[in-house]
Write a structure and sequence with these properties.
The protein has two domains: about 190 residues, Spore Coat Polysaccharide Biosynthesis Protein SpsA, Chain A (Alpha-Beta Complex); about 70 residues. It contains ten helices and seven strands. The chain is an alpha/beta fold and about 325 residues long. The chain has a seven-stranded mixed sheet, sandwiched between helices. β1, α1 and β2 form a beta-alpha-beta unit. The radius of gyration is 26 Å and the shape is elongated. Bound molecules: uridine-5'-diphosphate and magnesium ion. This is Glycosyl transferase family 2.
């Protein structure tokens, strides 16, 4: 669980709402009001009056917090939360998720690139048994060719490196149920790539294809630097294969070292070498091979320690059914 103090007072006796929407916001003053209108309309269609919208201000430098503060005082469905500084999209999202109380939770960006109106479809699919309904981008409008192609390349590499298939063309726009959220919050790792963590969890996941629009207003908060950081979090969070590369190099260099040593020995037997050359070559070749091999072995242990340190649960239960549970009377 997150070590956060209980910031949000859990009011006893208050039933959890049917739906929570979690919206990370960083310098989103230009769209927030529009976002709130559309989100509210979508929530009313799907959950009547029984919903909450959790806005997380991720240390914005514009008037985002003033706007959120006002929304919270005007609309009882709004929970406005502000982080002490800019922690980044994934952590802002995680912070919002940690206070969401709903039975179902929608994650959506503040910029209306993902249409809130899809919520109704997502709810239907969840009614039919899905635990996670994620939006699958069939088209991305208003995004640069660079962003599109880098995203495609990134997901292809990621999937080659990891054992958990992480769906391509999928962002954090998704509806999850309480079961999935509780399992997600029980993963205490620091570097959070939320969509990867949810893929890792399993459960019954369904894709909902949609067209991703251009931002309603404002500009992207994901410059190249942040995209690279997200990519690094994703790869190191789900794969130790890059560490294994050293074992591969070690194997190759060891084989080369043996071949060079053999050649040096044969040349020495042939008698046409300078004094000291043979022993020098053999020592250098073999020792550098051994060094790389040792590094490779350390890499293996380091990779295991790294994965171990994440303290992820070993497994996640989806359901448990029995006629007689703990404390139940013996079945007749
Ligand atoms: N965001 C955030 N903190 C950040 C950067 C972004 O909370 O440090 C929010 C942002 O307000 C938006 C969402 O994360 O709601 C996605 O960001 P953006 O739309 O800029 O990313 P893009 O869609 O361009 O990948
Ligand atoms: Mg966006």
């Amino acid at each position: 669980m997150f070590p956060n103090p209980p910031l949000f007072p859990a009011s006893p006796g208050r039933r959890p709402p049917r739906l929570s929407v979690v919206v990370p916001c960083y310098n989103e003053e230009a769209v927030l009001e529009q976002t709130h209108c559309r989100l509210t309309a979508a929530c009313r269609v799907s959950a009547g009056d029984d919903y909450e919208i959790v806005y997380v201000d991720d240390g914005s430098r514009d008037t985002t917090w003033t706007l959120l503060d006002r929304l919270a005082s005007e609309d009882a469905h709004v929970v406005a939360l502000s982080l002490s500084r800019n922690f980044g999209h994934q952590l802002a999202l995680s912070g919002g998720l940690s206070v969401a109380r709903g039975e179902r939770i929608l994650m959506i960006d503040a910029d209306l690139q993902d249409p809130p109106e899809l919520l109704a479809d997502m709810m239907q699919r969840m009614d039919a048994g899905a635990d996670v309904v994620y939006g699958l981008r069939t088209e991305r409008e208003g995004e640069t060719a660079f962003k599109k192609s880098s995203a495609q390349w990134f997901y292809r590499t990621l999937n080659r490196l990891t054992d958990v298939p992480i769906p391509q063309n999928v962002g954090d726009f998704r509806l999850i149920n309480r079961r999935v959220l509780d399992a997600l919050l029980a993963m205490p790792e620091q570097h959070r790539f939320v969509r990867g963590l949810i893929a890792w969890l399993g459960f019954h996941q369904e894709a909902l294809p949609y067209v991703r629009h251009a931002r309603a207003a404002g500009e992207t908060k994901y410059p190249l630097r942040r995209m690279l950081r997200l990519a690094a979090d994703a790869i190191t969070g789900f794969s130790v294969r890059p560490l294994r590369v050293s074992i591969l190099f070690a194997g190759i260099s060891f084989a080369v070292a043996l071949a060079i040593s053999l050649y040096a020995l044969l040349a020495w037997l042939g008698g046409n070498t300078a004094r000291g050359w043979t022993s020098l070559i053999i020592i250098v070749a073999l020792f550098s091979g051994v060094q790389l091999l040792c590094l490779g072995i350390m890499g293996e242990y380091l990779g295991r320690m790294f994965m171990e340190l994440k303290r992820r649960p070993l497994f996640v239960f989806r359901e448990l059914k029995t006629r007689g549970g703990p404390g139940a009377s013996a079945p007749e």
